[in-house]
Write a structure and sequence with these properties.
Length: 255
């Protein structure tokens, strides 16, 4: 019996390294830099995204600042800017991101990362595809799927209740985007905002997630994702996964 046990242990030793070496499909660089209103989400988002990576065979390289943008980015299939204030990137880091997209790199922009002061970095405003104006207080609203054929909508119902800040944006550079999600302004009050600010309505065309091509790369943007608990929500995580998958691979559009 002991000889059989030794044989089984030896066999397991041979098999386990093979399991541990399971190939990943791609590597995603995640830059999740804390800011004044966005920091509690970081450990929650990291745990959830790393779980998605293990489940779907992609690797995550997680960083708390823009330092990787100063280095070699060629081995990353996409860069996720997760609530990161991009205006805090150094001049060389900005150049690094620009060169990455110009060489065919791809980007995923989440919530706070879509905000940059007007005129500070016009290239980045164009990458996002829309320019932030302001947002009302967090409210529950009806989010509508506008493009069922895009991977970031596959795990979502056609209409779903979601609570977020619902950013108001403009399009000063006249960038064409493909809308994936929109919010129904009739289902909440866009003017419910803090004293001293003026709330704005966008009307029927109020996108909250979209994708487009920029430079030589693919860009997916979602304005949803303010609260830490959102990064435990299966629907929201499926939404992010679809955007990551498309940005990294270019696959999944049902045309």
């Amino acid at each position: 019996m002991s000889r059989l046990l030794r044989a089984l242990v030896a066999l397991a030793a041979l098999l386990l390294p093979a399991v541990g070496r399971a190939d990943t499909q791609f590597t995603l660089l995640v830059i999740a830099a804390p800011s004044k209103y966005h920091y509690e989400y970081i450990p929650v988002a990291r745990e959830s995204l790393e779980k998605l990576g293990r489940l779907h065979a992609f690797a995550i390289d997680w960083h708390k600042d823009g330092a990787p943008l100063d280095g070699d980015l060629t081995h990353y299939a996409a860069i996720m800017l997760l609530n990161t204030p991009a205006d805090e990137f150094s001049p060389t880091q900005r150049v690094g991101l620009e060169h990455y997209l110009q060489a065919g790199g791809n980007a995923v922009v989440v919530h706070r990362a879509a905000i940059i002061p007007t005129g500070v970095w016009p290239w980045y405003e164009k990458l996002v595809g829309r320019t932030f104006i302001n947002h009302p207080m967090i409210q529950t609203a009806v989010v509508n799927v506008l493009d069922k054929s895009f991977p970031a909508a596959f795990g979502l119902p056609d209409h779903w209740l979601w609570s977020d800040e619902f950013y108001v944006t403009g399009n000063p550079f006249d960038i064409a985007i493909h809308r994936v999600l929109g919010v129904d302004e009739a289902s909440y009050d866009p003017t419910r905002i803090w004293p001293g600010q003026v709330g704005h309505r966008m009307g029927k065309d109020h996108p909250e997630a979209w994708y487009h091509r920029y430079e030589k790369g693919r860009v997916f943007v979602t304005l949803l994702g303010h609260e830490a608990e959102m990064y435990r929500d299966d629907r929201y995580l499926q939404h992010l996964l679809g955007g990551i998958y498309w940005a990294a691979t270019g696959l999944g559009e049902q045309r």
